[in-house]
Design a protein that fits this description.
Elements: H1 8-15, H2 22-35, H3 45-49, E1 51-53, E2 57-60, H4 65-70, E3 72-75, E4 78-82, E5 85-90, E6 97-102, H5 118-141, H6 145-152, H7 155-168, E7 170-174
Helix pairs in contact: 2-5
Length: 178
């Protein structure tokens, strides 16, 4: 008995797991949602207002996004004071440079895991949950799933494809350092 399979690209398209396909977009959005509690939050500008999620990229479009992601203080920093209380910081030099000091992150507004390199920390802590959601999306989104799963042969192949797609996603695209 011989089994004739469709080409891999046809199977991937039917499942929606081709590059930049619906599963790729869902994976990117799911990663962005899971990353929320890892992204630093003060006013919500970085975490929500300046976050753009596209099919294969999550963009944190803020002038300070890069150093917040790196977790390093940039300077030089001169304090701005009102009545001997520091109310902000000013840098007389451009461009700024890394001072070597680590940033301190506040866990606020549901961002209890806020810190540097939030994409990598989220993935190492929650990749199984993300993959499970994507698997469920594939099952819900493809009506003929049960009939066609034999074409793909196993969940292991789908899992491998999802991992490859995750690593292709450009998680952080940051503005140049000021």
């Amino acid at each position: 008995m011989s089994l004739k399979l469709k080409p891999t690209n046809i199977i991937k398209t039917r499942l929606g797991i081709q590059k930049n396909g619906p599963v790729h977009a869902f994976l990117t959005q799911t990663c962005a949602d899971y990353m929320d509690k890892y992204v630093p939050f003060a006013s919500g500008m970085l975490a929500y207002k300046n976050r753009k999620v596209k099919t294969n990229v999550i963009i944190y479009d803020s002038p300070y996004a890069h150093y917040m992601y790196k977790g390093l203080v940039m300077g030089p920093n001169v304090p701005i004071k009102e009545n001997d209380i520091i109310v902000g910081w000013f840098s007389p030099m451009k461009p700024k440079y890394y001072t070597g000091k680590q940033l301190n992150y506040n866990a606020s507004a549901g961002h209890e895991y806020a810190g540097p390199r939030w994409d990598k920390r989220m993935w190492s802590a929650e990749k199984n949950d993300v993959i499970k959601e994507v698997e469920e999306f594939i099952k819900r989104g493809v009506k003929w799933w049960i009939l066609k799963i034999q074409e793909f042969k196993s969940w292991e192949n789908i899992y491998s494809t999802l991992l490859i797609q995750f690593h292709r996603i450009q998680i952080i695209k940051l503005m140049p350092i000021c």
